[in-house]
Amino acid sequence: MKISIPTILDIETTYSRIKPFVHNTPVLKSELINSMLDCELFFKCENFQKAGTFKYRGATNAVLCLTNAAKLRGVATHSSGNHAGALAKASAINGVKAYIVMPKTAPKVKIDAVNSYGGEITFCEPTLQARESNLEKVIEGTGAVMIHPYDNFDVISGQGTACLELTKQITQPDIVMAPVGGGGLLGGTSLVSKSLWKSTKVIAGEPANADDAYQSFKSGKHILSQNPNTIADGLLTSLSDRTYTIMVENVDDVLIAKEETIVEAMKLVYQYLKIVIEPSSAVPLAAVMENIDIFKGKKVAIILSGGNVDLGSLLFYLS
Amino acid sequence: MKISIPTILDIETTYSRIKPFVHNTPVLKSELINSMLDCELFFKCENFQKAGTFKYRGATNAVLCLTNAAKLRGVATHSSGNHAGALAKASAINGVKAYIVMPKTAPKVKIDAVNSYGGEITFCEPTLQARESNLEKVIEGTGAVMIHPYDNFDVISGQGTACLELTKQITQPDIVMAPVGGGGLLGGTSLVSKSLWKSTKVIAGEPANADDAYQSFKSGKHILSQNPNTIADGLLTSLSDRTYTIMVENVDDVLIAKEETIVEAMKLVYQYLKIVIEPSSAVPLAAVMENIDIFKGKKVAIILSGGNVDLGSLLFYLS
Questions:
Q1: A284 assigned to some structural domain
Q2: Which of A48, A274, A311 is the closest to B307 by Cβ?
Q3: CA-nearest residue of chain B to A51?
Q4: Domain-embedded: residue B151
Q5: Residuewise pLDDT in 10s, chain A (319 residues)
Q6: Which residues in chain A touch residue B275, judged by CB atoms under 8 angstroms apart?
Q7: For residue A28, what is the nearest residue in chain B, using CA coordinates?
Q8: I want to staple B179 with a disulfide (CB 3.0 to 4.6 A). Which of A153, B168, B183, B283 is the partner?
Q9: What are the two backbone dihedrals, phi and then psi, of residue B256, each rounded to the nearest 5 degrees?
Q10: Cα dist. B97→B91, B93, B110, B118, B200 in Å?
Q11: Residue in B302, B315, B308 with CA at minimum distance from that of residue B34
Q12: B113 lies in the same domain as B71
């Protein structure tokens, strides 16, 4: 079966559709970070997006693309992270019921977020099998439409709007970077960049401890993560066939970063940009820090994916 | 001797003078914080100001107002905090030498900041007497002009430009708030607000553990702080005659906040606004949290003073 992948036209249509519902997030710079790393960095701040994450773009688009009949039945997903909160909020705003299957070990801050947006949570054991079987039951019982966090045409199209917005905020950079987990943000970003900024290189940043995209990119085979373990908790997932295909066709390189560099990158952002980001957001900057020569003198745009960090964990990371 | 106090015209002229050198900082909102506190809050983000603090406005104005002869001799001050970095940076940008007397116990991050801006540091014992006598010696030796952190016409005029900018960013609020330490920011803010937003109440937020402005306001006498001790390290100073006079004439109330509420307010800002602020910035929000009835249903603008926090201390505060 041919995998459907959004075109730039799809992403532009998506942007018109979701624009009234999402924040046009700012782009920040730091002279001090630039002089430290000898390049010119532009940070697209999706940590300021609604629900604190770029995932609100994809979730909003998925909800708005439902048929009226489907809207009445609702949406469902399993997630322990940002997709859960983003889908719950996007659904609530549009009067759609959201059923979220969450492992009972999910961080309290994520559970609170889903609750505050009125999502209906089903708790399950923290295994993929339990998550999938519980989700199946919920869908059987409600007729809700499954919204996958990244292996979904409408979601990828929505995530691409962050880069589309960026193309209106800065002049063409030499390099654009996004973190890669499941590949939704990287996919959307690379599709937009390769279409509107043809000569710009697209580089993904990935934790060395969850390097399925790196392994896949280097080997030319779609490899899944084995026991990923990183503080960048939004990047534990592996690429799907769809996001793997987009990467192969549109991404120029994947760079990995060590855990300690990810923490150093977070500290730089807190100290000099004065903004709160989650560890996953810091991974592309960490990749820059580990590959100074590649970026020397270059103009580099980095998409900061989100700012949902548990303050308790933050203390642990930064100490 | 009559104390000179800036008028709105002085502050408008100041803004024209410093505008090319300072950031027009954004105003942020959080729907979640608003619904928690049952009021509508607007945060003027001086944590994004150059040098990470509103003090860059006053320092820039003071430097630009020097005579050419004075510019050649340089500026001097004693400071363990934000004024040191702000004055060093404002001086460097304008080709003026800055001599900073710092207690040898000053936080490393502040010392690093002054160094990175090329300020010339004289270290001394951590007493007011040692600071003043060392500053005198520096001034004798160099002929540099002393720039007081708040008891200075040009500095207060510069600090007022944050509120002047704010009047162009939001419609008139019911209340405008600033933290109060030495009273430079509160002074400038109140002068602007009483002139352009006549019916808006001006309320200061002050740590209960450094409550000289509160004691002075309530007693009608200029009282100095005795052994102030608060995590809001930018607010340890006492009002000068000049800033006391401005407060008496232009401020409607001073509210105090407990240390634990200041920490709670910081957490709210980190968690929901996704920005890094220093404890002093959180004091007005803490005062709102302790006085819900005063603010209920009101539109309230809060000036966040800065974002220069040592990550080590941050961990300590938030844990």
A1: yes
A2: A274
A3: B272
A4: no
A5: 689 999 999 999 999 999 999 999 999 999 999 999 999 999 999 999 999 999 999 999 999 999 999 999 999 999 878 999 999 999 999 999 999 999 898 888 889 889 999 999 999 998 888 999 999 999 999 999 999 999 999 999 999 999 999 999 999 999 999 999 999 999 999 999 999 999 999 999 999 999 999 999 999 999 998 889 999 988 998 999 999 999 999 999 999 999 999 999 999 999 999 999 999 999 999 999 999 999 999 999 999 999 998 877 776 666 6
A6: 274-276
A7: B48
A8: B283
A9: -105, 155
A10: 6, 10, 18, 8, 40
A11: B302
A12: yes
**Tens of pLDDT, residues B198-209:** 999 999 999 999
- Structural domain including B252 reads 8-52+158-318
> In this structure, are B73 and B109 located in the same domain?
yes
Which residues on A lie below 8 Å from B52 (Cβ)? 274
Collect all residues with Cβ–Cβ distance below 8 Å to B90 and sequence separation of at least 6: B21, B51, B56, B59, B60, B62, B63
- Cβ-contact B45, B26 below 8 angstroms: yes
Signed CA dihedral, B150, B291, B201, B48: sign only? positive
How far apart are the C-alpha atoms of A2 and A10, rounded to whole Å?
17
Q: How many CA atoms lie within 13 A of B117 on its CB side?
A: 30
Alpha-helix residue ranges (DSSP H) falling in chain B: 8-18, 31-37, 55-64, 68-73, 82-93, 108-116, 128-142, 153-169, 184-196, 212-219, 241-250, 259-268, 283-289, 292-295, 311-318
Contact B318, B262 (CB under 8 A): no
- Cα separation, A4 vs A29, in Å, equals 36
**Dihedral angle over CA of A248, A252, A257, A261, nearest 10:** -150
CATH number at residue B60: 3.40.50.1100
**Residues B125, B192 share a domain:** no
Half-sphere exposure of residue A250, counting CA atoms within 13 Å on the CB side? 30
Strands across the sheet containing A98-103: A120-124, A98-103, A75-78, A145-146
Query: What residues in B contact A34, CB-CB < 8 Å?
Result: none
Min Cα separation B46/chain A (Å) = 10
Residue that the structure tokens 């929000």 belong to: B285
The size of the A-B interface in CB pairs under 8 A is: 45
pLDDT for B47:
97
Q: Is A151 within the bounds of a domain?
A: no
For an interface test with B, the pick among A276, A317, A319 (most B C-beta atoms closer than 10 Å) comes out as A276
What's the structural domain count of chain B? Answer: 2
Same domain, B48 and B62: no
ipTM of the complex: 0.90
The Cα A110–Cα B306 span in angstroms is 29
The neighbouring-strand residues paired with A123 are A102
Which residues of chain B have a CB within 8 Å of the CB of A307? 274
Strand A40-45, strand A27-28: pairing = antiparallel
Q: Which of B28, B307, B319 sits opposite A315 (nearest CB)?
A: B319
Same domain, A232 and A253: yes
* Rounded distance between C-alpha atoms, residue B231 and residue B286, angstroms: 13
DSSP B106: S
- In terms of CA atoms, which chain A residue is nearest residue B32? A116
